[in-house]
Design goal:
globular, alpha+beta, homodimer, Muramoyl-pentapeptide Carboxypeptidase, domain 2, about 160 residues, 4 strands, 4 helices
Chain lengths: ~160, ~160
């Protein structure tokens, strides 16, 4: 029924809370960076917890690409109720995950009008991906890019140890 | 698969964030009250939003009891993946909803050990109920009571206009 709505509403509340708390502080300079990293860290922990449940009865993955495919299908579907639309890789540890109708951006008008608001609503999800990968033994840097709402690209760069 | 885990993890993050933010402030006296009401207000808005989606294609309710039953079954199931176990009323506007294994308390050890931590984890859900009722035209006061984890009673008192 409205399962997906629960996550979307909670996510909106979290973003609003993080930005509101920061606005009452004095160090406005640091504001934007702190908020994004607070949200990213929350996503990281949630991603870690979720992947642990997801992969409990799973076979191991045969390589990084296999793992990324699992993330794009099963992991993404459970959280965002749809799969990633396109997965690309350079086969050297960089992956681009494209979601053409990213659930957390669909409430905005399409187009470029609210483009500068987008990073607020992507930080948590970058953390989700990074947390999931981290729990599976892959350290990564995850960034997001929006050029036209509600489509979104996540870039994952696996860090070689 | 792990749909319910997503909500539980997010909820834990929210509680942790609200209490952490408050801990960095100076007015320790007000601390506990403010945190609970911040969480309650977040739950209120989420409850309002959710009930709007839930009841979009629903017939209207024939009376308050009918509405409470809907809340105990459909609304509760979607959020907490189970129904309320017991609903009581004095037929004068007071309802007691009992959940014997309340999802947000099951991660604690059973019994009385962490009883004083419980209110943190109930405020959001009190808000959920109050928000849902409010959007259906009923103003209410919602409180929660735990005597033995993970069982929990929510008391709803409808305010006569």
């Amino acid at each position: 029924m409205a399962d997906d709505a629960l996550f979307e509403f909670l996510h909106m509340e979290i973003v609003a809370l993080v930005y509101k708390e920061q606005a009452t502080r004095e160090d406005i300079d640091k504001e934007r960076v702190t908020c994004v990293s607070t949200l990213e860290a929350m996503g990281f922990r949630v991603g870690q917890g979720l992947i642990e449940r997801f992969t409990k009865d799973c076979p191991t993955f045969k390589d990084d690409l296999d793992l990324m495919k699992f993330l794009c299908k099963d992991f993404w579907s459970t959280i965002f109720k749809k799969q990633i639309d396109n997965l690309r890789t350079n086969h050297q540890g960089t992956y681009v995950l494209q979601d053409n109708t990213f659930a957390l951006l669909t409430q905005f008008s399409s187009g470029k009008q609210y483009l500068e608001e987008a990073p607020k609503y992507l930080a948590f999800s970058c953390g989700l991906i990074r947390g999931a990968l981290s729990n599976l033994g892959l350290e990564s840097v995850v960034t997001a890019e929006v050029s036209l709402m509600p489509s979104c690209k996540f870039q994952v760069v696996i860090q070689k140890l």
